[in-house]
Amino acid sequence: MAFKRWRTVLAEAAHADRMLVLALLAGVVLGGVLLWSHASDRVRAFETALGGQIRTRAGALDMQMRVAVGHLEALRQRAEFFYAEYPAPEDVPASSLLTAFLASNTRNDRLLGYSLDRLPPPYLVDQIGNVVALPLAALGTDTHLSRPDDAGWRQEAAMAVQLLPLMAVTQKVVPETRRLIYASLSGMVAVHPWVESGQADLLPQAGTLPAFVNAAPAVNPEGKPVWTLVGPVGDLPASAMLALPLTLQGRYAGAIAIDMPITGLRSVLGAVTRTSSMLLLVDAKGDVITGSSQRSDQPLPRNIADLFPDGQVADGTLSHGILGNHVVAIPLKQAPWRVVYIAPSGASLLPILTDMLISVAGFLAAVLVVVFVARRLMLRALAVRDTAALAEREARDAAEKALTDLRAAHDELDFLNREKTRFFSLISHDLRGPFNSMLGMTQELADHAPKMKPDEVADFARSVHEMARKVFELLENLLQWSRVQMSGTPFAPAIFPMREVVSDAIRDVASAAQGKEITILDAVGDRWVLADRTMILAVLRNLLMNAVKFSHQGGVVHVTSRALGDRLEVAVTDKGVGMEPAQLDLALRGGPKASRPGTQGETGTGLGLTLVRDLVLRHGGELKLESTPGRGTIASFTVPLSTDPAETRRLMSRAAD
Questions:
Q1: Which residue range forms the structural domain that includes residue 508?
Q2: Within a domain: 617
Q3: Digit-coded pLDDT (tens) for 293-317
Q4: Whether residue 573 has pLDDT greater than 90
Q5: In terms of pTM, does the model score above 0.70?
Q6: 158-173 burial, b for 16+ CB within 10 Å, e for fewer?
Q7: CATH code at 559?
Q8: Does residue 262 contact residue 227 with C-beta atoms inside 8 Å?
Q9: Domain count, the chain
Q10: Sign of dihedral through CA atoms 166, 169, 173, 177?
Q11: Angle (nearest 5°) at CA 266 between 397 and 207
Q12: What are the distances in angstroms from CA 458 to CA 98, 199, 441, 449?
């Protein structure tokens, strides 16, 4: 009986041991499952954050490329608009830049080229680029290049020099740009920044450089922007050229390109900070364009196939398990390239193993410790998710801001197009009236002059003269305003007495004032100013014409001045019809506008005050208008004060004695 009893006790003990072992095994399995699940969550959170960061970097590079493409489109549109504005070579106006370019080979020597090595004032080499052309004799050695007739070639040169100011703006907006190039099949190159013609290495390659060959219609029939990698340095290219074909009057004329150093693209992508990680920019063939790694002694691969045996990397965020690499591949929209980021397994393995060890130790120590550690890990996982969500929100906010900026730019361009249409409508309307009247009167003279009395003929002639004067004033204002807008009017300040310019302006408007019996009183005084005489004369002439136009028959117009510190304020005052507040606000706005009729029905161009405002701004001054309906208007502006040069020399001589 005793033996059986001990046997039963031993059997129960053995059964209890097996249950304990099974319970321990079940606990270990459950803990392992929980730990594996936690590790998988950490890997996914890590990949989400990593993908958001790389998308932000790729978006920044894509946005920079979009800005570059947009500015190339603007340059191409300006070139096409030039040919639309001046379709015939004889219509092309002569500018100071074009004159300097043609003067570099005045004899049209076949062995000499053309250049802007000597820029005309006020242009400086650090503000504008150069235009260089091959000698005519050199064109025969290159089958890709051919120059049109002299008139057509001069027309293209005029277009090229007009592109230089816009190229300067583009380089400021796209700071990664090394230079901008317009390469023509006529052997002409416009390049910014300025470089001496002897150093313009692109000139002999205008017809054969891969970037321009790839942009030609034979390779690029749709005329899209083309990216070309050029100039390898070691195993990597030195720069990327974005080229856009230019078609003028139905013929392929050449291409406009932006040369962006690879180092600039790499700086936009940024550096990597994770251990043994790589950030690569890869082309469509898988070749590595540029990139960076966390270790300076780690060379970049030549092709993505060197890192992946199959050579294929799908777009998106990929994972090769906890022990494998993490890969993010983001395609660019503005270029046929991809941004690829590779993080080694250790980037996520070390924190995961740390958590697992802490969790195992807590699980083996006590359930409470396991719960505490699990809660801690959960908080960490939530923090990682919050970081990823924040990065995604920042990327979305950046994209929305960029979209808002693009919409604003589009709205501004649409506004400018509407203003242009309205401007041409105003000009055509203002020109049509006087020309119709002159045509009618001259036809009347042609048909009935022999039968008319001399007084009647003289009256007709005075009317025709008055209308011709109005047309001349319209065209003069239009020409001056367009030159100011295109920066075609050189700014040449000099010291002169303001009284002389006021007298000239009064003499210019004398006939209009006499027709309305208006007296113009000059009370400017003996003041000397430092300004552009031609511009100030145009300002005074327009202000006086407005004063006469809106004054009543037999009125008086005053021209006065007063010193305000180092500036002179000149005011033109009339006692005419004045302006309502809404009319005053409209008059102070920039751009052409509809003109109000004068007291005797006089018409204008709507450009007078706009031209005055732009010319005063060129002198660092300000145009002010004060008006009361029915009581008149005061128009004033400021220019820099100076002293009489002769008086200054006399005082200096006395001081020396």
A1: 490-648
A2: yes
A3: 766 667 788 887 777 766 566 676 5
A4: yes
A5: no
A6: bbbbbbbbbbbebbee
A7: 3.30.565.10
A8: no
A9: 1
A10: positive
A11: 110
A12: 45, 65, 12, 11
